[in-house]
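Example pasted here:
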Amino acid sequence: MPQQPPEARPLGPDAEGQWVRRWRSPSWNSAVDAWVGARLAERERRVCGEPVTYRARFWSVVRCYPTAEGLVWFKENNPGHLFEAGLVTAMARLAGRCGRAGRGGS
């Protein structure tokens, strides 16, 4: 039985902002669900349950998809926070050079 997505987090005080409204629209959800489904199909995987918008705040949205192999997460940032992907990549490279520091290891 596939793992179920976590319960959606409540909307914050910024829920009426343009980005949150966009991310909660049926047309955006349909487009993203189709995109995620296509990426999974490329890897011979598929969504096998109802996706959940886990969090929608003005800076980003996080959506969760159940699959037979486990949960798959999707995140989109608003344009003002596009730097995050590059920052996470740089931090991962740095963490790799530092061994297990910061991961609870010794």
